Every structure is written in C-alpha cells, then in structure tokens.
C-alpha cells in the first residue's frame, strides 16, 4: 500500500494516540545534550590536541548520531497506541548510520578553512537529510498490525524543518562564534540543534495517521505505556552513559594537553613554562631556591640515559618529600629544580627545608643496586618589593653562574656586591662572540588575523644558547645587554638575520606579510638605525613593507619629541611601526593620538585575566575602543586559551592573535611543519 494514500473508509477507521508530556520533554533534553556533546567534540577538533582532528570529528558524529537515534525512540515511547508494537532489529540498528554519516559530513564541511555559502548549505542539507532519514527509517522499522499513512504536506515540511534549522545551527556555530563567549554559543547552538531534531520528529509524527480494521480489538493502553516507558528509559540511560563517556574523553584530552604544556614528563613536576608564568605574577615577598645538580651527563655516559632518568626521578621524589603546602617545586631544566614560596612566615622554614635537601643530596642514591652520589649547589634569592620580584630569577642565576661556584652542597644567598657584576659583565662581554658563533638565534611567533584566518606575519624573538649557562631567558640577558649598551649591535644582527630569512621565505613561497623586529628604546632615535635598515633591505632586495618595527611605550615617555620625529620618518619610508606592550607605561596615553604608529600591541599582562577578570576585561575593551577609534591594527600578545580568543573576537572588529593558542615561538624548520598543520586542521571560526 502507498504510504501517502488513505485506505478505504468502509474497511478501516482512524486510531488516535496520546503523548506523555514528561517523556516528550525527556526526548528534547536528550537532543539538546547530544548536540552540546557533539559540539564539544567538534571544538576539540579545532584545537591542538593529543588526538587527531578526525578522531574528534568521529566522536562528534557518534554523539550526534546516537543523540538523534535516541531522541527518536524516546519520542516514540512518549506516544501510546492501544496495540502491540515491536521493531525490526536490523533496520533499527541501520537507522543510526544516516545520522552519523550526515553529522560527520556536516561537521567536516563546517570546519573547512575557507567556508562559503555553498559549504554551509551542503552541511545544513546533509544534517537535515540525516535527521530525516534516521526518523523515517526508524518509523519503517516499526512492526504493527495496523496501517499508517503520511500527509504529504507535513511529510515535506518535516524534512524542510530539519534542513533549515540544521543550516541555522551550523551557521551560528561556524560563522557567529566570534561574536559571543564560547560556552554560551555552544549552549545556544545545542538548543537550536535540539529544536531541529525534535521539531522534525514531532512534525513527522503529526504527518502520521493510523488506521485499524473495523473489527480491531485494542489492547490495554496502560500495558503499552508501561512497555514503551521501559524502552524510553533504557534508551535514555544508555544515551546518558555514552554522552558521559564522550564528554569525559574531552576532559581527558584537555587534561593531557595541560600536562604536556605545563608539566615535566619525567618527574611529573611543573615545568619551566609554568614556573616563568608564576614569576610574572607581581606577588611578594617571595623566596626562590634553585638546586643545580652537577655533571649528570657523566652518569649518562658511564651507564645510560635511562639510568640517568631514574636518578632524576628519585631525586624529584626526595625533593617532593620536603616541600611544604606553601612551597612550589618545579623542574626548570634537566639538572635544575626550583623551590618557590610567597609566604612571609616561611623564610625560616624555607631555609630549614633547603638544609634538609642538602642532607638528602649528600647521601648516596641507590639505583639498580649501585650507589650514586650527586654533587650540587643551591642558589637562593628573595624579593621584598616589586622591583626585586622582577629580578629574583636573574639573581638566582647570577649565583649559579658565578665563576668560583663550588658544587659542594652549599646554600649560597644572592649578594649584589658579588654576583651581579660578575655575571652581567660576562654576559655583556660574551654577546659579540655569541653572534659570530651562532649561539644567538632567532625564533618566530606567528600572528593570525581572525577576520581572514590567515597568518599575516611573525614576530622575531631573540634566544641565547650559552655554552656555559645553557638556554638563557631573554628576560635575563636582554636587560643586561641594554644596561651595557650592547643591544644596538645585537639589533643590527637581528635586522640582518630577519631580512635574510624573509628572502628565503619569498623564494619558498611561504605566505606572510611582514616580520616584526623589536627596537630598543635608545636605538629608536639614532640616525644609525635608518641607515642600517635601508642598507640591509637593499642588500636583500626587500621593501620596507616587509618589516614592522616594534618600540615600547617607555621610548615615547622618555623622549616624546625625538621619538615622534623618528617614528614619523620610519612611516614616511614605508615601515610599519607598532607600539609594543601597550598599557604598561605611564603617561603615554595622552600622547597616543599624536603617535604616527600603525599598530597597537596589547601586553600579555592584560590578556591573562580575561575573560574571568571583569577589571582586566574592561581595561582591554577600553584599549580596543581607543585603538579602533584611531584606526590602528590591534595585536593581542600572549593569547593562550579559547576563552580569551572568543572574548577578543567579540570585543574587537579585527583582532590579530599572537600567542601559544596558535603556536609557540618556532625555529625555521618548525615553521614549515606548523604551516601545514595550521592550513589543514588548526583554524579559528571566522
């Protein structure tokens, strides 16, 4: 019999059913929760993840497919008829496939780097057809001793509803995410998707008319409802378990991502990155102790690297045993552990803890039945005010780097009359040799335009792999070079290296617009800088547009007239000029409208608190409004989380993002690999 033709009225009569409102509500909730879970999985696909992007798209499709399937059968259990009903098991299982395949296709298309009207349309059409196919295959799987027909108009309407509402939901998630906070967008989109699934189902049910023979004997409606309630509850429980598992997998991935970024894999201790982040928080008093373990490489050579790792692990365990609740322990380098406390009452206890560490390290460590003695020294520095707080790490390094340091378990406190001069003088004297021998090198951090979803440039960042002190933090050696007037030579070296690299990228077809170079304050107003820039660009056949000069607020604050004149000359020559670390200076705000700059860079210290801190969020919004009113490009430094990206995309018309959210600073070899990964999978919603 044709499902669109009514049977003869002389042999059949219509049969009416009833809905259970609580079960109807349950079915809608299942559809919304499943949609939210699927969108959460999709979000993980768009981030740097421990798992492959397609893995998360598959989980998103699984959640969506099972959600549609469960909503259908729970919705069916809400509808009662006075007859016996069963399902064709094969068709029932098969009915989930269209929903899952359509969901995967929809999510895949919605996440393409370049989305168009047609990609949105195909994605919405695929999702809508998937929802409809699942519903009507599921209906066909019902086994009943009655006849049912569909109203053609309502049948078509149910499919149109599924397609249109799916298209709207996918467009909201893909295209409008930048205008709202992420969790709100996910909830809103989940509700719209839940509406699409539910509306399609109940419109499709409304299109149904059931017919029974005139001599039909109905069964107890109560018995039918009891059986269907059981089916609905069973499906709901199964769906809850599945969605719970999928959400748990997302949480596990977030945990793994955090562990990889901020914890040492060998010792499970917080790593140097987390340590440096903590030091940037202006909290004092604070006490820092760094234990340097001497000549671990000797153990690796004498035994093997696994033996050396076991030594490190056992030492880490011993150090943890003396750590108080108010003291934090980090592994900041392969052979260095740092203790940090910020409790005023901890000074004596802190010293006593370091004495216990000394006692522990003096005793031999037994590894694989072999006794091992590790020589070590401890450098201690403290900070009682904000200025000292910014130097506490450099002061501890000055102790460790002192030429006559002995690794005899001594606990050495920083003495500015002894340690600072020697360390700073050595660093200042070594820098010329470091440039010649390539101890100094550059890394590049991408800047991504959220409006076009393109890498528009890089910031060049200086690094120093010192033969004696290892990888020196820029926060340590750059201030020393500036104080000793070495940064001018270093800046000339940076300009040469950047221009050379730009020439290589141009030949290789690497897509970008310009590279930013940090210019020290004392060099901005020098006539030498313009000559060096012109000569270097000419040597490499480049144009000024390829470079952006980054200068700090303090450059303007110290000498506003000369700085204005110099920057204006750079702009006339065609260079972009960015005001770096905006917001950290004093009194430059009143001069901002006079500065001939092209770009405003908002300092990371403001970004760290958004969107959780209302105060930081308000400050950033005010700076954005000021920058936009002056028609400046706005770059946000130090962006690390999706929540920060969503907030900035909401607050700024055309934000440019720089930070670990997209990439850490990369060397030249890493950049090509990163570009491939970024273009294929890591993108933002535009």
Offer a concise description of the structure.
The protein is α/β, with parallel strands linked by helices. It folds into 3 domains: 12-261, no CATH class; 272-416, Reverse transcriptase/Diguanylate cyclase domain (Alpha-Beta Plaits); 427-678, TIM Barrel (Alpha-Beta Barrel), CATH 3.20.20. 55% of the residues lie in helices and 17% in strands.
What does this 3D model show about the protein?
The chain is α/β, with parallel strands linked by helices and 686 residues long. The chain folds into 3 domains: 12-261, no CATH class; 272-416, Reverse transcriptase/Diguanylate cyclase domain (Alpha-Beta Plaits); 427-678, EAL domain (TIM Barrel, Alpha-Beta Barrel). It contains 24 helices and 23 strands. The strands form 6 sheets. An 8-stranded mixed barrel has the order 15-16-18-19-20-21-22-23, surrounded by 5 helices. A hairpin with a 2-residue loop joins strand 9 and strand 10 (336-341). Helix 4 packs antiparallel against helix 5 (117-140), helix 5 (117-140) packs across helix 6 and helix 16 (487-508) packs parallel to helix 18 (527-539). The longest helix has 42 residues, at 221-262. It is elongated and about 110 Å long. The relative contact order is 0.07. Mean pLDDT is 81; it is low at 177-181 and 222-227.
